[in-house]
Amino acid sequence: MNIFRLSGDVCHLIAIIILFLKIWRSKSCAGISGKSQVLFALVFTTRYLDLFTSYISAYNTVMKVVYLLLAYSTVGLIFFRFRNSYDSESDSFRVEFLLVPVAGLSFLENYAFTPLEILWTFSIYLESVAILPQLFMITKTGEAESITAHYLLFLGLYRALYLANWLWRFHTEGFYDQIAVVSGVVQTIFYCDFFYLYFTRVLRGSGKMSLP
Amino acid sequence: DEDVLQKDEL
Predict the structure, then answer these.
(1) CB within 8 Å of A138: residues ≥ 6 apart
(2) What is the value of ipTM here, to two decimals?
(3) Are B10 and A12 an interchain contact pair (Cβ–Cβ within 8 Å)?
């Protein structure tokens, strides 16, 4: 555990809590892609199956359980409790275009051809693209509320900090997880355009982030 | 081996 990894995990947690509280307090999930949230719930589910097979640390177990609970609670708010506010017309990204290639790739490129390893690999690949329905939705509607932008900022920070974590671990331990690193770089690249918009529009602007 | 498959990162 190093400072980059810990800050990355905390940013990830903050992002998930920001989104949950935004929906809970405003009693609305307007502007939020339910599809991205289902994909994230699927990411956590397929990645954390090792909760049942191997114990790593109390920190590891607690964080996994918290991520899972928050992910499913958020999905519950969007599709059940506040489903009237869900904008399914704008959330029109075709997730099968992500799921099929990601599933195929996880069978082809993995560390071991076992069910748990393939599901772990699937979750790593899927996480790298799971935010795309949300970014697509913002592009389609042309704007995002600033709180949604803060959510995306913390998710992006989490990714960037994990890159720093991997650089640190490579230098100090010689640790290098190729699948996680390559997917992580891809995932972080998706946030670069958003980072630019965030700093030029949300921080200087009026509260809403509109796209050109 | 065990080490490769043990995932400590979230």
Answers:
(1) A31, A144, A148, A209, A211
(2) 0.82
(3) yes
